[in-house]
């Protein structure tokens, strides 16, 4: 029995080729994801970790920096051979083209020392008046050992120094700096961390215990060297897991599309082999044997596809790492046994699960079917599937309707999102019924103008609604996700643009850092205020803080502004006067359960907090400050060091901008723009993320396109005799090819339209659940929709090329004789 099934599998290579493609693509995507995450972990954790630190004492959660007195006190702990203070600060490295190199200049500078933090790869250690550059930063800046370079400091001063050497940095948990000063005093006399080196034979745990007794545990973190190494490994594993989790969602979509394709393929294969299965039943094969044989056949295909998919995934990862490897940074490539096992598990299990329904149908074939020349399966009822689909659709819609309010709590947001997903599943289950409801009337209408080819194409596309639904479902999933995120993206861009226009006057000149959210130099605000023509200049001090209300603490974003400054939150309730208290975003207030008159505590760092009263609600959105408070309410140290944006106005807006541009012409760490420039900057990064999502979801569309080819090719095999009869009564080869192409276009267009409609609806639910905006306040992504429709037509035509050619070349006599 098994030998007969496997022999048939080998004899029909064309039947299995496209199924293997779907399996290979799905497995390749999974394995590539796993290998990327494994390689990420190895690159981070496999770096040359330091072993020279006995005990580290560092600031905790933006606490106050350590002082020279702290350094001296820690250095006197018994068993300590040496105490070294590590300082970090602002260092804007200017390249040979005059542009800023450091992406985060506020974290790019450190003081040189003799510790193992630095691995010198060229030149020598710097002395006062010199700097050493990170190897990667030196390449980007176009600097070599012996060159002069320019470095901008926090207060706007410019330092000219000689490049003495290049290094590779070996961090524990801090960002890798790009500039190391030969004179650490350039960055001040306060330290981010104190590193203690133990004497030979000294107990580092005892040193750590003594250090804890000398510092405030709420403000300082004390750890031994082995603990730091273990934490670095944990962070690397967490980073790898984060990469894996962020990509596995896209993998799941690709696999879902693959399941539709594989299930549809096996359903058609089993249908075509009805007589063969019936003969096996007639000569004594049991239902269990038939079912097991089909599942083994699926397992063999899954095993072959998984092997090819694993090779493809590893190849994709190797190519990606080679193309995107950061210059000057070591990159490791790792293929763990887990990634191989996952690839085989996905390939074999997914294929067998997809084929299970077909195996059951095969086992149900009656031996009497072998006596019929037109043996086929009885059409299965859609009643159960339709009822379940209607129930899920109604339940999902009801969940969304019950959460239509804008001020949603976290639970209500989850309910709304869950309702959208459930409704989507309902539409998938209703796909066969929808195909009948949509394609039959559309077919009658199109047939009036399309001639014989159109009538044949439309009729064939709806002759089996289950098959059409299975084929179009894969297309619908991919396109729906693209359109959903496009709708979310367009709506987000619209909300961000509206929020920025509601806060920043059109006439304002905006001064900000090249890197979003990075503090400007401490001299920028005062310098702008002193410029001629500037009537009003104020600042935005943006950052993340913890908010506590009724014993519950969560993260939020805060901006400290001047009450009479240029910018004011767009208030929808209460007052915008921050002198009276905090103005909170409407959705943020709903999520943390506060209203006007309630008190909240904003924790800026371990020793600095602000307790204030909510006096107004504004139209807040993600990416913009959710809390606005008076700058006078925050500690003095934040007023100058946390300025992220400066806004300036005056009687002549163009004169104000020209004056500011001239004042900062030699400062690449400062960008001068306007309100529209702020909008463009805020939305560009989001658009890049959406573009990446489109590319990843494109894998599902590619798999779905192969599914259309597969369906058409197998459908041609199934209709061999029918096509032969058409040719015998006068149908020419062009007519047959045109009919197959039109069938493909109808299937793809139907799947595309259904995916677009579902995607827009789900995108509306997403933006409503995520941002608390009205369900109807969406921006429809018309360019994406137009591209999707055109793309589906192209897919329809291309997918039909091979099946149409095959159909037109069928031998008439052989086809008529086919039983």
TrEMBL record:
Domain MacB-like periplasmic core: 17-212, 468-662
InterPro entries per record: ABC3_permease_C (IPR003838), MacB_PCD (IPR025857), Macrolide_Exporter_MacB (IPR050250)
Domain spans labelled ABC3 transporter permease C-terminal: 250-367, 696-812
Main location: membrane
Transmembrane regions listed in the UniProt entry: 16-36, 247-271, 292-323, 335-356, 387-408, 414-439, 469-488, 692-717, 745-770, 782-802
Transit peptide keyword on record: no
Cellular compartment(s): Cell membrane
Record bears the keyword Transport: no
A Pfam family of this chain: FtsX
Swiss-Prot/TrEMBL keywords: Cell membrane, Membrane, Transmembrane, Transmembrane helix
Topology within the bilayer: Multi-pass membrane protein
PANTHER family in the cross-refs: ABC TRANSPORTER PERMEASE YTRF, MEMBRANE COMPONENT OF TRANSPORTER-RELATED
Family per similarity comment: Belongs to the ABC-4 integral membrane protein family.
Protein name: ABC transport system permease protein
Organism: Kibdelosporangium banguiense
């Amino acid at each position: 029995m098994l030998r007969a099934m496997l022999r048939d599998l080998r004899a029909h290579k064309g039947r299995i080729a496209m199924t293997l493609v779907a399996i290979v693509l799905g497995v390749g995507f999974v394995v590539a994801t796993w290998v990327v995450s494994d390689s990420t972990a190895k690159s981070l954790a496999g770096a040359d970790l330091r072993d020279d630190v006995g005990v580290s004492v560092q600031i905790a959660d933006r606490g106050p920096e350590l002082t020279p007195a702290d350094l001296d006190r820690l250095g006197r702990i018994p068993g300590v051979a040496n105490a070294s203070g590590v300082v970090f600060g602002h260092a804007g490295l200017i390249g040979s083209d005059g542009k800023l190199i450091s992406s985060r200049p506020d974290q790019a500078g450190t003081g040189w020392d003799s510790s193992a933090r630095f691995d010198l790869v060229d030149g020598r250690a710097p002395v006062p008046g010199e700097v050493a550059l990170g190897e990667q930063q030196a390449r980007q800046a176009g600097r070599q050992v012996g060159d002069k370079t320019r470095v901008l400091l926090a207060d706007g001063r410019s330092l000219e120094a000689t490049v003495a050497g290049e290094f590779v940095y070996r961090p524990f948990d801090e960002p890798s700096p790009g500039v190391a000063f030969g004179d650490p005093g350039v960055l001040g006399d306060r330290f981010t961390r104190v590193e203690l080196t133990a004497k030979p034979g000294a107990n580092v745990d005892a040193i750590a215990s003594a250090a804890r007794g000398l510092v405030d545990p709420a403000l300082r973190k004390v750890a031994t060297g082995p603990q730091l190494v273990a934490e670095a490994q944990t962070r690397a594993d967490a980073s790898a897991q984060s990469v894996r989790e962020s990509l596995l969602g896209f993998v799941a979509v690709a696999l879902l599309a693959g399941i539709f394709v594989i299930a549809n393929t096996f359903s058609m294969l089993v249908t075509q082999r009805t007589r063969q299965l019936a003969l096996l039943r007639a000569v004594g094969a049991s239902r269990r044997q038939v079912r097991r044989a089909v599942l083994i056949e699926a397992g063999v295909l899954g095993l072959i596809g998984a092997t090819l998919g694993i090779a493809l995934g590893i190849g994709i990862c190797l190519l990606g790492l080679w193309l995107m490897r950061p210059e000057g940074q070591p990159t490791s490539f790792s293929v763990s046994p887990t990634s191989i096992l996952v690839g085989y598990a996905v390939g074999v299990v997914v294929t067998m699960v997809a084929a299970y329904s077909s195996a059951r149908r095969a086992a149900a074939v009656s031996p009497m079917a072998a006596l019929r020349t037109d043996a086929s399966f009885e059409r299965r009822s859609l009643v159960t599937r339709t009822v379940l689909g209607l129930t899920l659709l109604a339940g999902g819609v009801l969940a969304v309707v019950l959460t239509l309010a804008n001020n949603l709590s976290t639970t209500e947001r989850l309910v709304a999102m869950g309702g959208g997903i459930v409704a989507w599943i309902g539409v998938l289950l209703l796909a066969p019924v929808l195909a009948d409801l949509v394609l039959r009337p559309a077919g009658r209408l199109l047939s009036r103008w399309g001639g014989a080819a159109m009538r044949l194409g439309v009729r064939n596309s709806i002759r089996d609604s289950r098959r059409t639904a299975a084929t179009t479902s894969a297309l619908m999933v991919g396109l729906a996700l693209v359109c959903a995120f496009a709708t979310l993206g367009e709506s987000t861009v619209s909300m961000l643009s509206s929020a920025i226009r509601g806060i920043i006057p059109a006439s304002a000149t905006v001064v900000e850092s090249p890197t979003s959210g990075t503090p400007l130099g401490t001299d920028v605000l005062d310098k702008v205020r002193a410029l001629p023509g500037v009537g009003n200049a104020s600042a935005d001090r943006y950052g993340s803080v913890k908010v506590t209300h009724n014993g519950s603490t969560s993260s939020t974003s805060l901006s400290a502004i001047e009450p009479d400054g240029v910018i004011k939150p767009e208030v929808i309730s209460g007052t915008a006067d921050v002198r009276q208290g905090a103005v909170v975003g409407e959705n943020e207030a709903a999520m943390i359960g506060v209203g006007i008159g309630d008190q909240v505590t904003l924790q800026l760092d371990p020793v600095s907090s602000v307790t204030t009263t909510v006096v107004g609600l504004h139209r807040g959105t993600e990416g913009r400050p959710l809390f606005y408070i008076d700058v006078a309410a925050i500690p003095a140290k934040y007023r100058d060091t946390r300025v992220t944006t400066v806004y300036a106005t005056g009687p002549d807006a163009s004169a104000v901008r020209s004056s500011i541009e001239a004042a900062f012409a030699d400062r690449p760490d400062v960008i001068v723009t306007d309100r529209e420039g702020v909008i463009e900057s805020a939305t560009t990064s989001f658009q890049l993320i959406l573009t990446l999502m489109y590319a990843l979801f494109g894998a599902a569309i590619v798999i779905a396109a192969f599914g259309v080819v597969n369906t058409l090719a197998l459908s041609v095999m199934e209709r061999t005799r029918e096509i032969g009869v058409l040719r015998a009564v006068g149908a020419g080869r062009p007519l047959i090819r045109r009919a197959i192409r039109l069938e493909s276009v109808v299937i793809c267009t139907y799947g595309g339209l259904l995916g677009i409609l579902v995607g827009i609806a789900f995108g509306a639910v997403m933006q409503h659940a995520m941002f608390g905006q009205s369900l109807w306040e969406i921006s429809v992504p018309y360019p994406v929709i137009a591209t999707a429709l055109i793309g589906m037509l192209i897919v329809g035509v291309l997918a039909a090329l091979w099946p149409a050619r095959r159909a037109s070349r069928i031998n008439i006599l052989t086809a008529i004789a086919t039983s």
